[in-house]
Sequence to fold (600 residues):
Amino acid sequence: MKRFRVSVLIGAAALASCASPQGGIVPVKSSSGSVSFTGSMWVDSVMRTLTLRDKAAQMVWPSTWGDYAATNSTQWKNLSKLIREEKVGGFTMSVGSPTEIATKINAMQEMSGIPLIFGADFETGAGYRARGPYFLPNAIDLGGAVMLPPQMALGATRDTALAYEAGRVTAIEGRALGVQIAYAPVLDVNNNAANPVINVRSYGEDPALVARMGASFIRGVQENGMIATGKHFPGHGDTEINSHIGLPVVSVSRSRLDTVEFVPFKGAVSADVGAMMSFHGLMPALDPAGVPGTLSSVVMQNVLRGDLGFRGMLISDAMDMRGVLDQFGGVEAAKRAVAAGIDVLIQPVNVRETIEAVVTGVAEGRYTEARLDSSVRRILVMKEKMGLARSKFVSIEDIRRKVGDSAHYALAQRIAERSITLVKDSLSQLPLSTDKTKKILLVGYAGRTDLGATVTFNSVIASRFTSVRTELVNAGDATPNYARIEAAADSADVIVVSSYSTQSIDQAMSVSAPASFAGFINRLIAKGRKPVVVAFGNPYFMQQIPGVPAYVVAWGGFAPSQGAAARALLGDAPITGKLPITIPLGAGNRTAAFGAGLTR
Fold:
């Protein structure tokens, strides 16, 4: 068997469970001491069939919805062209129900000569993308894959065993859907409270904590048959610019990067992470040339592969983001990314132009065809490792046995309960009164499209008291009638405000809640109304209401976190979470520091 040195590395257990029988994938030591993998007969045979353009196409992975698409629909015709004519190597799968995603993936695999490989943003489990929809107008939750609490909730638990279990459940459900690569975990150290895009997607602000939790999640994913992806190297945590809509700059020293930003990525390399995703941002301390990390050979090759010793697959962040488009445009950005060492270009603006740009880069002498070969071999080895050379289809019947399993939901509830963090209770208001006759006012603040907001939380609280009034403020309403709600608060014995304000990844310019909402709470405080605020979205919201007497962080707004927060407020469950971040409160107010958290 002819051998190829293809630099791909994932956990040994995953390797054993997923390796194809057609020539093993055996780790070997090179003369330099680095770990590489030999190729196989299957990889060798596929490589011989590929033209230069075919190789470029293997490196380009568009995105597609996981929704229903009739075979004569425009969407399906476009997908067919991407697979049959453009011959792309894989896809990033976006939102849909579990059965629709799996059915669609099987149909797409049927059209492809070389098996396709699929990645998805599974930062909070497969439910991050394969959640069932709501049926309107009744807002009936139609179920789906399990949505785990955000990564920062896991950081609040400090429990690496829970992080491992989160990875394990993600892999089991994701593979049942036909997805092989989880674009997770987020390894960014969120040490900037104003970061509008990472926020609760991170495990926290402490590099060591992020490293421990991330490595455990990676092992959970890869020891159960899926590839994990650490993101976003070299680190998207200390920024105030959303790379979807602008170009962030992290202006810190190399020594700071080594001791903070790089720590979780080093931990991921030690945990044999299979893939890394790049950061569309500038780090002058690494490359003063002024190009985003994705397009920098210094960052991708010298630092990530050289200094950190990463040998896996390099995946770009989405190539339709302004962080790379504004400076160079799609065609030039694609060439620069490949020249920098990126193996996979995901979500390009124009698939055909991107493939042709990669090919043109060879003709222009920007890189060689052998450079493309190294990336294509990594992709093919990954496909074989995931068993796609043997069978590229998933069992639709198997979905109901693995996706949305009750034990997986129990894990989500356990994480949620362990994560609830009581940051402040200066008037000892918690747990809430046991007097069932108390008048309770529940005020929720959420976007109009967040159909699940307040539902579980309000239901659990209302089950304990005989007089409960609920109000829901639409975050999209420019002029909410706060005066009416403040009047209702005057006659309430207990006021609980639940905030579902969070970052919108694609659009967020700022993570702050509107001044009108913060002003409403501050007026209640000024009038001595003693509101209890529960943050189901942005945990840093306390910065805008520093005088609030009771502040609880629940980290995420889905049902498990809502239920856990309600039970914690009622005293039915202990409160044990610790802040994995610091909430700076400004002059005259005591900062809520890392590790803070009152137990109840």
